[in-house]
Amino acid sequence: MKMRSVTHNNRKRAFEVKTSNKSFIFPYAKVDPQPTSDDPIVQIFVDKELGWEGFTFVLESGQEGTVHIEQVLEYNQDPGYLRDLLLYRLTIEAQKQVDASPLSKREIIRRLGTSAAQFYRLLDQTNYRKSVDQLLSLLHVLDCDVDLVVRAKSA
């Protein structure tokens, strides 16, 4: 996700990040170095060296800090980001289970009722076009139980 613009709001003590379809707040307390009234932000910009997926800020003291869009999305609990994170974690676990399984890859593909190309797309952790359902089916074929745990956040 690319950033369109970033500003800072000293009253809120937060950065205001705009992407193509959403706006987010990211507090000063989550960055290093932290801006203060004694060392304020003098420059802030979306960083092209990060592929427009992050921003850099410069404090009056000359210290610089950089924030990636993933930090902003995680802080704001963006549903799309959380879904991709879940897919990533399930894919890594599926890779481990395939490697440890006594079943051949050909047998796994047959049991899934899919093609070899689709099987390898499921195991590609950079592919976010797959569904959680497909990964759960793969883990089921590998004789794995998947438990979803929901708990209240600790204070």
Can you characterise this structure?
The two termini are 30 Å apart. The chain has 2 domains: 3-75; 79-141. Helix 2 packs parallel to helix 5. The relative contact order is 0.11. The radius of gyration is 21 Å and the shape is elongated. The strands form 2 sheets. A 3-stranded antiparallel sheet has the order 1-2-3, with helices on one face. Strands 4-5-6 form a 3-stranded antiparallel sheet. By secondary structure, the chain is α+β, with helices and mostly antiparallel strands. The protein contains 5 helices and 6 strands; from the N terminus they run ββββββααααα. Strand 2 and strand 3 (23-27) form a beta hairpin. The mean pLDDT is 95.
Mean pLDDT score? 95
Number of DSSP helical runs = 5
Biggest sheet: strand arrangement: 1-2-3
User: Major β-sheet, in short?
Assistant: 3 strands, antiparallel
- Give the helix level as a range of percent: 25-40%
Overall tally of structural domains = 2
Strand content: 15-25%
In angstroms, what is the radius of gyration? 21 Å
Order of helical and strand elements:
EEEEEEHHHHH
Low-pLDDT residue spans:
none
- Quote the distance from N terminus to C terminus: 30 Å
Could you give the count of β-strands? Answer: 6
